[in-house]
Amino acid sequence: MAIPNIRIPCRQLFIDGEWREPLKKNRLPIINPANEEIIGYIPAATEEDVDIAVKAARSALRREDWGSTTGAQRAKYLRAIAAKVLEKKPELATLETIDNGKPWFEAASDIDDVVACFEYYADLAEALDSKKKTEVKLHLDSFKTHVLREPLGVVGLITPWNYPLLMTTWKVAPALAAGCAAILKPSELASITSLELGEICREVGLPPGALSILTGLGHEAGSPLVSHPDVDKIAFTGSGPTGVKIMTAAAQLVKPVTLELGGKSPIVVFDDIHDLDIAVEWTLFGCFWTNGQICSATSRLIIQETIAPQFLARLLEWTKNIKISDPLEEDCKLGPVISRGQYEKVLKLISTAKDEGATILYGGDRPEHLKKGYYIQPTIITDVDTTMEIWKEEVFGPVLCVKTFKTEEEAIELANDTKYGLGAAILSKDLERCERFTKAFQSGIVWINCSQPCFWQPPWGGKKRSGFGRELGEWSLENYLNIKQVTQYVTPDEPWAFYKSPSKL
Ligand SMILES: NC(=O)C1=CN([C@@H]2O[C@H](COP(=O)(O)OP(=O)(O)OC[C@H]3O[C@@H](n4cnc5c(N)ncnc54)[C@H](O)[C@@H]3O)[C@@H](O)[C@H]2O)C=CC1
Ligand code: BAL
Ligand code: NA
Fold first, then answer.
1. What is the mean pLDDT of the chain?
2. Which residue, 40, 134, 257, 271, could crosslink 8 as a Cys pair with Cβ 3.0–4.6 Å?
3. Is 201:211 a contact under the CB 8 Å cutoff?
4. CA-to-CA dists, residue 345 to 99, 100, 256, 340, angstroms
5. Which residues contact 103 (CB under 8 A, 6 or more apart)?
């Protein structure tokens, strides 16, 4: 597919089905991380805009055209959105690349996942119609009970920049499928494609207020959404510290949250792997894909001592072969990280590792041939010990740290030696061993003989400080539903006879 040249659309906030200027008229620059240039501006919402969007969402829930829809009717909107996204795939992939820095072909594959995800939740919305009322058997005949699965209400969706439109979709598609009215606050570092989703919703005639999109800063636009008394739930993906702030603010209103936070996931490699090159490639992909900015990146390689020398030698050869370039170049495999702040943060973590006594086996700096842009070489760090920051803290950049092990017990101890618990991978021919590790890993996701493949049907989420709640699959739909018990007294002409009846009137 040809990579199109493109103009950055100039958008406003998407509220109540139309484009509206933010009340304070503020805008934020859009920066292309490949050349550090300002390529446009996004509107910056504040508390006042949040309030208008919440009122529009409430009104959508009260109106017939959204609040009384069946799942099958909502499925039509979701399929229409999917079709439009597919039609605009080349433009959307290009916008994603120049906003986020990920290689164009990765962005294009994200857009395919966006389409699939909207279609998948269209199917689940349809299926919800037959499941929205279910009987519950009781032990008494004088009562009967059923359970309703209703839209939860107005939901706030706060998303990160690493998979901008895809992370938006992971939340928007199930929220709309469930019949909620959603307010999306994308990351200020990569908002373009989420705003384009607003245009798509307008084109397909999604009822006003069903989805509003408020771009802006976390503390100006995200925080008021979390604290708004008329928002029923917050679904968040992003950093741990922001997750803590969101949970703390939501707790004041006893507002439910789902949190998908960071990780420091292990990839455990045994000496009985099927093939050295295949294992090396999964190790690279597990950490360097998406320019290393993946919450589930398997960024701690735990390698059996017996094969460590040849594995690392081969890992180095493969790493040197990774093409680092402008992400719009056709066979680019590693682009820049998202921002100046992220670039500095990653380089600082590398230099601290060096100061703490680790060895930078490869990379660790800006590639020589790229003078501008937030580029960092794929970096492999050895001689790491478990007290080092590089072992403990999420980097969110193309940095892999390595430790060796002798026994299974040692490997599992190292794998679980983290405050996080998102993903974990094991590469070994011995499937019984893989089974033992699957049980022992303290994580929400396990990969066997691979790392990172992510599909929309299974659940996604973590434990420990990687957060809680599950996205994707049918689990995500549950996040946006209220389970209502309805109990009926089926013999209303018979007295309950709990109190002593006074004499008859
Ligand atoms: N788990 C993941 O998928 C991600 C993890 N990260 C990690 O987080 C670090 C910082 O990246 P940031 O972009 O600053 O992440 P962040 O967690 O601050 O931002 C994520 C989203 O939360 C919003 N936000 C920020 N403060 C908020 C608040 N007080 N109330 C409500 N919403 C708020 C942001 O505007 C953005 O939409 C990265 O270096 C990386 O380590 C970043 C992005 C994704
Ligand atoms: N495919 C991984 C999604 C994430 O990093 O959040
Ligand atoms: Na950007």
1. 97
2. 40
3. yes
4. 19, 17, 31, 9
5. 97, 327, 332, 333, 334, 335
CA distance 300 to 390: 9
d(CA 224, CA 156): 10
Any idea which residues carry the catalytic annotation? 260
φ/ψ of 144, rounded to 5, equals -135, 150
Span between the terminal Cα atoms of the chain, in Å:
84
User: Against a cut of 0.95, is the pTM above it?
Assistant: yes
Would you call 260 helix, strand, or coil by DSSP? strand
255: left (phi over 0), alpha (psi -120 to 50) or beta: beta
Question: Which H/E stretch holds residue 178?
Answer: helix 164-178
Mutate to test the pocket of ligand 1, among 158, 165, 168 (most ligand atoms within 8 A of CB): 158
In the numeric block, the tokens 């050349």 are attached to 35
Q: Which atom of ligand 2 is nearest to the CA of 296?
A: 5
pLDDT, tens digit, for every residue of 98-128? 999 999 999 999 999 999 999 999 999 999 9
Q: Are residues 243 and 236 in contact, defined by beta-carbon separation less than 8 angstroms?
A: yes
**Complex confidence, ipTM:** 0.94
Helices and strands counted in the chain (H then E): 16, 22
Q: Where are the alpha helices (DSSP H) in 356-480?
A: 389-392, 408-415, 431-440, 473-479
